[in-house]
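Entry: Acetyltransferase
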Amino acid sequence: MCIKKATLNELDSLTELFDLYRMFYEQKSNLFEAKEFLKARLMNEESVVFIAYDENNPIGFVQLYPSFSSLSMQKSWVLNDLYVKKIARKKGVGEKLLKEAIHFAEETGSKGVLLETNVENIPAQSLYEKIGFKREANYFYYFSV
C-alpha cells in the first residue's frame, strides 16, 4: 500500500472514492458534481487530500481543510473526510491515512488536526483514540444553517 498527496492527476480515482464516501453517508451518487467539487478544492488549494492505493487501486482517502486559531495565531487542519473501501477495511488503511494527515500537519507547522464524528461511530472513535486524538471535553460546538 502506498499513500500519495492528490493532484489533478488523481482526480478520477479520488472522485470514485469521494462518491462512495458520500453514499456511505446516505447521499445520492453524483460523479459529475463530486468531480467538479474536488477539482475546485484542488485547483484553488482549498483542501489537501491523501489517497491510499493498493498497487494501482485506490482504496481510501483523507481530506483536510485549513483553519486558523486566532488565540494561538497558528494554522490548524480540519480532517473533514476519511473513507476506506469496504474491501480494504480492518487492514490498517484508515490508520495509515490518519498518520499521514498528522504528519502533514506537523510538516506544515500547524497547531494540529481537528475532527468530529458521530457519537454512534464507535469503531472510528476507537481508531482516533488509538492514534492519539483526545476527545474534547471543554467546548461545545454549535451549528447554524
